[in-house]
Automatic annotation (TrEMBL):
The keyword GTP-binding does not apply. This is histidine kinase. The lineage of its organism: Bacteria, Pseudomonadati, Bacteroidota, Sphingobacteriia, Sphingobacteriales. Residues 599-659, 684-718 form a coiled coil. It comes from the Bacteria.
Length: 931
């Protein structure tokens, strides 16, 4: 505090000396004496000191944070992030998120919670980012802590690449990540640096160099494995598997990585993550056209999703439906799509609901249910238009589907207008999106009879699909082949059909195989090869009947042949009509050209007239401006003269005001100094009185507290002696009962009763030992199990082992168990050892009993009692035995919360696994022993 006041004084003196030199002319003019300046300097210093002390007291108050207040801040932030995460389909949630962020920030300021203020500002910045306000988001960076800056730069990178994958956005992504990396390195936090590196790897996989991204991920996994962080290694491996492109060259990397993830998360018992990895594998198999393996992964994944109640089950059902479509089982696919929709509604997955509706609409379209198809597509499109962020291509796929249904219903022109309107609203990105609209436009123009325009669009789709892989290419070839067949261009269709024929059958779906057979039938029919045409048509019908469950094959064949015959006649008439339409269109086009030429001439004349008028206007404005400049120059001279006179008067007035102000200021500051000195003196007296009173009160409370502590300690000592006395008396009572039983055995001649009394003696002796150890030890509720078992074995050796000479081998962990577990454990040992000595060693040389207690986890033990005797009789089931000893062992095992097993292997081995209530400090030891 003294140091801060000293620094404040030095700063104040420097400032005032500078002020003195700056206002020296005025001080001379006003004849202000040096004494007056000293008074002003002293007053200003006192004011600065008082301000510094007040600020220091205020900063100390901020250090006393309430846990309740910080929890309120965290709850507000959690609610804000919840609104931000769910805003995808409800833009109004972003305003709620900002409200929560402002409330959290206000509360953090009031209680001096620095982290809360930082997190609230980060949340607010992320909301502006979600709204697309990049400028405001970047402006918030300067108000954030360094870790929050790293998080926001990463969010900016994700947003940049999510909008549109243009070169500009991709470059921005890596710039943002480099800035995050630079801040992370300055922080010196390895965890933050690894997090940024992981983001680099992910973006390399998705938009950059895939091989480089894979290498970075592998390096991260090795780093986490060397650190022994299995959880982070598994998470990083999961990110690699999830983001790898589904290409054949990465198949080995993806499958082996997925299997490693499943092993890691099986050990960690993360069922939800295991199911997600299985879904990822299934999607990869689907892209490789291996539906059998995909289905094998999906079915158990769905069962795991049901157990964990995960919303990802929506995607699993949809994938399974797509497999059923490939198999030609549309009825089963319809059922799975409905399951997917129900799950999406249940888990509020509205973003996925649109995709599932689109897939269901496509299925209805394939089944020729146009009304249901249009209804479902419109539902999907309404959901998509409500979104604030779109998945690339999501809107265009629905535009294509709706336009297709409109075209099938005869609304071709309306469909083309709809496509043009939507293309402006949702322009396609480079990639698969570029094939969507050309394909549907080609089909619609073909319906209008504009085959040359349709062919151009189909060829555009084929050209784009050449760069996108076999799946897109095969689909484009299938579509253009169908177009050429429908327009009777057999020579152009044939090369594409030959390409389709050479595709392996396991790659083609049932619908693809059906279409190829239909196309081959049409080509053979046109070429006069009727035997081959009939063969292809029968194959087409067989596949089509499998898909749509058609029953009357013969009737359908007759109708199809009749339809083809009628269609040939109609095509001839249609071509004639098309020629007439083209002639009319050409005449109309010439008329429009003439009208356009006339309009252009009129426009040119109008522009020339406007230029002449504009030139005249410019001349008039130049003349007016010259007059204005002359008048302005004259006015400027008058203004300058008046300004000089005003400045002279102002100088005289200001000098007088300064003299007067400095005089009054000096008097006022002196009065303030005197009042401050008096106030500080009174405050000091009051603070001393309050401090003395508080000191006396604290001394009184300390004396009372000391008395309470002493009384508590005496009560604890008294309680310990009472508990020890209880254990001692219980032990004495048990010994009395044992002595009575021993005396009773002298008067019994019944062997069964004599045996029962001896067994009871042993059981009571086992409990008596526990109570004896409890009152002899410092702890009154726990005993050392190894010492207890050793004492019990010594007792049995003395009392029962005189004839058999059994060797005992003991391997027990030095653990302390509470009395609730020690007594059942002692009774189990008593029964097991007694049974072994009595029945196991009739013909055994060197009889031996092994007793061990080992760890099998952080909170579980296994007790083993093994002998080398004759073991159990073949067919004897201990769990169904009616003997008291076996019943006690099984019952006491359940009391321990464990399970008991019996094994015949060179004698009888009893294993009891149970969870243990450990004392503090023994959990780590038990974990080490288990490993």
């Amino acid at each position: 505090m003294i140091r801060s006041i000293s620094m404040t004084l030095n700063t104040s003196i420097r400032l005032l000396l500078a002020a003195k030199s700056r206002f020296a002319p005025f001080l001379i003019c006003g004849r202000i004496k040096k004494a007056c300046f000293r008074h002003i300097l002293l007053a200003f210093i006192c004011l600065m000191c008082t301000s510094a002390v007040a600020q220091q007291h205020q900063s100390k108050g901020y250090q006393k944070l309430s846990t309740k207040d910080t929890l309120r801040v965290k709850n507000l932030l959690d609610k804000g992030y919840e609104q931000l995460d769910q805003y995808l389909d409800q833009i109004e949630l972003l305003d709620s998120a900002i409200l929560f962020a402002k409330r959290a920030n206000s509360l953090s300021v009031n209680i001096g919670y620095a982290k809360g203020m930082d997190f609230a500002k980060l949340l607010e910045a992320r909301v502006y980012l979600a709204k697309g306000d990049i400028k405001t988001t970047k402006g918030r960076l300067k108000n954030l802590g360094r870790q929050s800056q790293v998080a926001l730069w990463i969010s900016l990178a994700k947003q940049a690449v999510a909008r549109r994958r243009t070169k500009e956005n991709i470059d921005s992504t890596f710039i943002y990540l480099h800035r995050a990396d630079a801040i992370a390195k300055n922080l010196g936090s390895t965890t933050v640096q690894l997090m940024v590196k992981s983001q680099f790897a992910m973006f390399q996989l998705t938009v950059g160099d895939t091989d480089k991204g894979v290498e970075i991920y592998k390096e991260l996994i090795r780093t986490y494995e060397l650190k022994g962080d299995e959880r982070m290694a598994g998470r990083t491996l999961t990110m690699l598997v999830s983001n790898l492109p589904h290409l054949a060259k990465y198949s080995r990397e993806l499958i082996s990585g997925a299997d490693r993830c499943i092993k890691i998360y099986t050990k960690l018992n993360h069922k939800d993550t295991i199911a997600m990895i299985m879904l990822c594998k299934a999607n990869f198999y689907r892209t490789q056209n291996d539906n059998t393996l995909a289905e094998k992964e999906l079915l158990p994944a769905i069962e795991l999703f049901k157990v964990t109640k995960s919303p990802v089950i929506v995607y699993a059902y949809a994938s399974l439906a797509n497999i059923c479509i490939d198999y030609g089982n549309n009825e089963k696919a319809l059922r799975y799509y409905i399951e997917s929709i129900n799950a999406a509604v249940k888990y509020k997955q509205t973003s996925r609901l649109a995709v599932t509706y689109q897939q269901l609409g496509a299925l209805y379209l394939a089944m020729n249910q146009l009304d249901k198809s249009m209804e479902t597509f419109k539902l999907a499109f309404e959901l998509v238009e409500k979104k604030t962020r779109l998945v690339p291509g999501e809107a265009l796929v629905l535009v294509r589907s709706i336009a297709d249904v409109m075209g099938r219903n005869g609304k071709v022109v309306e469909a083309l207008d709809f496509i043009d309107k939507m293309e402006k609203k949702y322009p396609p990105q480079p990639g698969p999106e570029q094939t969507v609209l050309p394909v549907i436009r080609g089909g619609l123009y073909a319906k209008l009879g504009k085959f040359d325009i349709a062919e151009k669009y189909y060829l555009d789709a084929v050209q784009v699909s050449d760069k996108l892989g076999s799946t897109f290419k095969n689909k484009a070839i299938d579509l253009i082949a169908g177009f050429y067949l429908r327009t009777r261009q057999w020579d152009k269709a044939k090369p594409y059909l030959e390409t389709l024929k050479n595709i392996p059958h396991n790659v083609l779906t049932a619908n693809d195989q059906r279409n190829i057979q239909l196309y081959l039938y049409r080509i053979d029919s046109a070429g006069g090869n009727y035997a081959s045409a009939l063969n292809h048509f029968l194959k087409y019908k067989a596949i089509n009947d499998t898909i749509y469950n058609t029953t009357n094959k013969k009737r359908y064949l007759e109708l199809q042949i009749q339809y083809e015959t009628d269609k040939k006649d109609k095509d001839i008439l249609l071509k004639q009509k098309n020629i007439q339409i083209l002639e009319k269109q050409d005449l109309l086009h010439q008329t429009l050209l003439h009208q356009t030429s006339l309009q252009m001439r009129l426009d040119q004349q109008k522009r020339q007239q406007e230029l002449k008028i504009s030139a005249l206007e410019d001349q008039r404005r130049d003349r007016d401006f010259t007059v204005f400049r002359l008048r302005a120059a004259e006015n400027d001279q008058n203004i300058k003269r008046l300004e000089k006179e005003a400045k002279l008067q102002q100088t005289l007035l200001s000098q007088a005001k300064i003299n007067k102000g400095l005089t009054y200021g000096g008097i006022l500051l002196l009065a303030i100094v005197v009042s401050l000195l008096l106030s500080r003196y009174r405050l000091k007296q009051r603070a001393n009185k309050l401090l003395n009173a508080q000191k006396e009160e604290i001394s009184q409370q300390n004396r009372s507290l000391q008395e309470l502590v002493e009384k508590k300690e005496s009560l604890i000592i008294e309680k310990e002696w009472l508990v020890k006395e209880i254990h001692h008396r219980v032990k004495n009572n048990l010994q009395i009962v044992i002595s009575l039983l021993r005396a009773q055995t002298d008067y019994l001649d019944n062997d069964v009763a004599l045996l029962a009394l001896k067994q009871s003696q042993h059981r009571m002796q086992a409990m008596s030992m526990i109570h004896q150890r409890l009152y002899q030890s410092e702890s009154m509720s726990c005993i050392n199990i190894r010492d207890y078992v050793s004492e019990m074995v010594a007792y049995f050796s003395d009392s029962m082992n005189r004839d058999t000479k059994v060797i005992f081998e003991i391997d027990m962990l030095p653990l302390s168990l509470d009395i609730g577990q020690a007594i059942p454990l002692g009774l189990i040992l008593n029964e097991s050892i007694t049974n072994a000595i009595k029945y196991a060693f009739e013909d055994t040389e060197n009889p031996k009993i092994e007793i061990s207690l080992a760890a099998i986890g952080e909170d579980a033990l296994t007790l083993m009692i093994k002998d080398n005797g004759k073991g159990l009789v073949t067919g004897f089931d201990p769990k169904k035995a009616k003997s008291l000893g076996m019943s006690l062992i099984l019952g006491l095992s359940k009391q321990l919360g464990g399970n008991c097993s019996f094994l015949n292997n060179n004698g009888l081995s009893i294993h009891i696994n149970f969870k243990v209530n450990l004392m503090s400090g023994e959990t780590a030891y038990l974990s080490v022993m288990a490993s």
